[in-house]
Amino acid sequence: MSLWVPVLLAALTTYAIKVSGYLLPQAWLDRPSVTELAGTLTVGLLASLTAINTVATGQALAFDSRLLSLLAGAIALKLKAPYIVVVLVGALAAAAGRRLGLA
Questions:
Q1: 3-state secondary structure of 27
Q2: 56, containing H or E segment
Q3: pLDDT tens per residue across span 46-78
C-alpha cells in the first residue's frame, strides 16, 4: 500500500470533521459548557505542544538552550514586556545558552 492512501484518507477525514462543524445548530455552540471546553482545550493543547517542542528530542528529553529561551520569555511576559521584546529576550537567551555550551 502506498503512503498516499493513508495521507489522503486522513485529509478527507479532517475535511469531513471540519465541514460537519458548520452543520451543527448555533444553539449547541452557544452553550457555556461548549465555549468553556473549547477554550480549555485550546490552552491545554498549546501548552503541551510548547512543552514537547521545548524539552523533547526524538524520544529523549533534552534540557538545552530551548528551555533557557522559554524561561527567559516567560519572565519577560510576567514583567508585561511587549511581544517583540519577549521574542528578542528568548532569542538572546537561546544564543547565550548555545554560546555557553548548551546544545
A1: helix
A2: strand 56-57
A3: 999 998 988 888 888 888 899 999 999 999 999
